[in-house]
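Researcher: Sequence recovery benchmark, item below. Answer with residues only.
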């Protein structure tokens, strides 16, 4: 059997999938993640598809905002319009004097997330990011979900 194993030729051009460090995965699994993150994006992360997990999470954020706002926009334009007046931003834990600034900042953060996170992973071959960096992005996107207020 050793001879047979030694004769195996591995194609070095094939992509390698690495699982995330156990502590990062465990933290994500035990964190209070939004269902939009704790489903497919988390599984992709656990399976070692770090870029794809972040791409999926940002696409879910975009779709969620489209659904609650009934806007037929996407990307930065969607976020700029959906969050321009605070209708969909949860400010219940923000002091009244800071709410307007929070709303404006949140709008710019979501616009930035579309430009600097979603777009780079959705449009072309972006270099594989580390599990640590994608872990941070997933938690940031989770926080963005947490700040959204749905209006009924």
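Model:
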């Amino acid at each position: 059997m050793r001879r047979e194993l030694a004769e195996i030729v591995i194609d070095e051009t094939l992509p390698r999938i690495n699982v995330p460090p156990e502590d990062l995965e465990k933290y994500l699994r035990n964190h209070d993640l939004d269902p939009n993150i704790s489903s497919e994006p988390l599984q992709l992360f656990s399976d070692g598809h770090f870029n794809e997990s972040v791409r999926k999470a940002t696409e879910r954020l975009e779709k969620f905002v489209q659904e609650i706002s009934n806007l037929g926009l996407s990307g930065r334009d969607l976020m700029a319009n959906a969050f321009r007046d605070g209708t969909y931003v949860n400010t219940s834990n923000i002091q009244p004097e800071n709410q307007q600034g929070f709303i404006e900042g949140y709008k710019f953060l979501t616009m930035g997330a579309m430009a600097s996170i979603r777009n780079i992973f959705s449009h072309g071959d972006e270099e594989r990011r580390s599990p640590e960096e994608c872990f941070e992005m997933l938690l940031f996107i989770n926080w963005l979900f947490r700040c959204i207020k749905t209006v009924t």
